[in-house]
């Protein structure tokens, strides 16, 4: 007999079922139905959230009826999210009745043992940071009403810190004792996630004795997982890694110990680390929109629409030199029309490549990497001209506004980023580019747009551009307008391969300080410089070097589940070889 297998009749209400625990799956099928339309519900053991004695309810509030012959199983139940790209997860609950207490105890014991065996990454102890001011200021309420009951059900202990200031979570992670924790949960938006990201990566490098400032160093992957409970005004990282912005769905991913590796881009200026980014590093349009929106915080989330419109109308483009190190084109391409979904094969292949010591060492994290990466070797490409925007993203950066994202075929964990160059163009062309982000039309299929899959990027100003405050730079002169036109025309011809890294770029304006603020839109002068928008933060430098670190962190997530590809519940479900995943 298969170990861990258990089979018996059980009752749900007044209907009799044949229940089977095979080790990997727990199934129950109604037995008394005469006709063929019997329905099997099949739950992978890895998606069982908890097993309780008696008749138990936990949401919206806990109710326990401690009976002798009953037990309650809580599990992940999917439902269509209607609009979002992923699936909503809900807490399924079924109360089973047994003929005897002995059988009941046998069932609960077997189910609990199966959970331990088949879900090795389930967290036992979590450190939780709640930003009480994020989004609509509902972080605390969301945590206590939705997340905490699930943690209790799953036997997870948590240490909760409600932050009192910005950067408290980051500082805590950098300095305090983290022994015994399996992961860190942030209840907030993208800003709060960024704090956790910086704290965890920084702490991991400190402990590994690695210098974060050196872009050539191979950083140590973080051993603690990050869970994101969306409670901000922008929750793009959650959306791009789970497919929906829903605290219950995210809490369930944490509880069952899902694990999604994530690439991180480090941004350096003049030999110092400036920031880490996972979603978007953007100069030009996206930088201007962020800078403008900071002036209108009082508008709330509306400020992004307002600022986007104002910046669009200001019709700006900026001179720059972009150098990039292309990724291996044989592995994937940003134009290959694939989507990085749960179980992505491109990311899986990259895991083997990125952690090729894995099989030797037996542990992902104990593998000994060479401290200096060979990742930055290769032929760099350089382009120069005027850009509407230059963006680098390590993921699709999909969000509810742009369901396919900035780069629809980008991968979460393949060790590459997508560099998007939007050259100077007329306002209508740029509007078309922006508009295509909200539809399924290909935003890269435009003559003034390029996209490259890359491992590293440098950006610097042409030597004649000074990083001066806009009052001094004034508007573009006639010469500059002319130059812009010529460069735009010849941009493909201007590409040149660099034999080595660093002929220009990092450090060319080390001593200069950027004016982080743009001219007001009422100002008749056009600034010569934009700013970098790094995951919603303005960077105080223009010349940067950025590099993608493959799978540097792990989230309690599994990527976006493809609802369309999954078999939906049908009456014939028990005859179907695939698991019925949409249990209505
Ligand atoms: N107690 C606090 N007081 C003030 N700021 C805080 C506090 N806790 C965290 N923060 C900071 O608030 C910023 C925004 O937080 P978060 O991302 O959670 O919310 P948000 O509403 O999405 O933010 P925004 O719209 O400003 O990006 C973060 O950068 C974080 O550092």
From TrEMBL:
Entry's Gene Ontology BP terms: ceramide metabolic process
Pfam families linked: CERK_C, DAGK_cat, PH_CERK
Feature: compositional bias, Basic and acidic residues: 480-490
GO cellular component: membrane
SUPFAM superfamilies to which the protein is assigned, alphabetical: NAD kinase/diacylglycerol kinase-like
Region listing for Disordered, in residue ranges: 466-509
Coiled-coil stretches noted in the UniProt entry, renumbered to this chain: none
Any GO molecular function: ceramide kinase activity
InterPro entries documented for this protein: ATP-NAD_kinase_N, CERK_C, CERK_PH, Diacylglycerol_kinase_cat_dom, Lipid_Phosphate_FormReg, NAD/diacylglycerol_kinase_sf
Domain DAGKc positions: 121-271
Protein name (record): DAGKc domain-containing protein
Organism per entry: Channa striata
């Amino acid at each position: 007999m298969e170990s861990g297998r258990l089979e018996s009749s059980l009752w749900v209400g007044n209907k009799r079922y044949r229940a089977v625990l095979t080790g990997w799956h727990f199934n129950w099928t109604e037995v008394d139905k005469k006709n063929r339309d019997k329905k099997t519900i099949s739950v992978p053991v890895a998606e069982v959230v908890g097993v309780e004695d008696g008749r138990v309810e936990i949401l919206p509030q806990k109710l326990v009826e401690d009976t002798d012959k009953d037990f309650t199983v809580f599990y992940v139940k999917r439902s269509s999210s209607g609009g979002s790209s992923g699936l909503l997860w809900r807490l399924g609950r079924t109360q089973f009745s047994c003929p005897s207490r002995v059988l009941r105890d046998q069932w609960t014991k077997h189910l609990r043992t199966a959970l331990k065996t088949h879900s090795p990454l389930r967290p036992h102890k979590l450190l939780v940071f709640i930003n009480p001011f994020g989004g609509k200021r509902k972080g605390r309420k969301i945590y206590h009403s939705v997340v905490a009951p699930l943690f209790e059900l799953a036997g997870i202990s948590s240490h909760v810190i409600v932050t009192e200031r910005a950067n408290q979570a980051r500082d805590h992670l950098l300095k305090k004792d983290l022994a015994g924790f399996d992961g860190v949960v942030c209840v907030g938006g993208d800003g709060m996630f960024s704090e956790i990201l910086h704290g965890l990566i920084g702490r991991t490098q400190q402990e590994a004795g690695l210098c974060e400032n050196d872009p050539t160093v191979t950083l140590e992957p973080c051993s603690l997982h990050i869970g994101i409970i969306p409670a901000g005004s922008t929750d793009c990282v959650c959306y791009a890694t789970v497919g929906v912005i829903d605290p219950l769905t995210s809490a369930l991913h944490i509880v069952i110990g899902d694990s999604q590796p994530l690439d991180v881009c480090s941004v350096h200026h003049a030999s110092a680390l400036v920031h880490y980014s996972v979603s978007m590093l953007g100069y030009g349009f996206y930088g201007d929109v962020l800078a403008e929106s900071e002036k209108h915080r009082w508008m709330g989330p509306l400020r992004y629409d307002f600022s986007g419109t104002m910046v669009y109308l200001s019709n700006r483009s900026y001179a720059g030199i972009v150098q990039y190190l292309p990724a291996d084109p044989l592995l994937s391409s940003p134009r290959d029309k694939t989507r990085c979904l749960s179980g992505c094969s491109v990311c899986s292949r990259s895991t083997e490549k990125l952690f090729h010591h894995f099989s030797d060492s037996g542990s992902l994290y104990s593998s000994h990497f060479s401290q200096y990466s060979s990742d930055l070797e290769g032929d760099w490409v350089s382009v120069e001209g005027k850009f509407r925007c230059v963006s680098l993203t390590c993921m699709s950066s999909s969000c509810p506004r742009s369901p396919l994202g900035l780069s629809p075929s980008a991968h979460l964990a393949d060790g590459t980023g997508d560099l998007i160059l939007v050259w100077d163009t007329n306002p209508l062309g740029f509007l078309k580019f922006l508009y295509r982000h909200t539809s399924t039309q290909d935003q890269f299929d435009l003559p003034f747009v390029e996209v490259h899959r890359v491992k590293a990027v440098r950006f610097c100003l042409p030597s004649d551009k000074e990083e001066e405050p806009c009052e001094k730079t004034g508007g573009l002169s006639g010469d500059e307008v002319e130059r812009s036109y010529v460069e735009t025309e010849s941009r493909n011809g201007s590409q040149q391969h660099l034999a080595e890294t660093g002929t220009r770029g990092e450090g060319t304006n080390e001593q200069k300080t950027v004016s982080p603020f743009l001219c007001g839109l009422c100002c008749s002068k056009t600034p010569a410089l934009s700013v970098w928008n790094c995951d919603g933060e303005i960077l105080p430098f223009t010349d940067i070097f950025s590099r993608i670190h493959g799978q540097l962190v792990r989230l309690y997530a599994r990527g976006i589940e493809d609802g369309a590809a999954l078999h939906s519940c049908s009456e014939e479900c028990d005859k179907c070889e695939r698991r019925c995943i949409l249990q209505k």
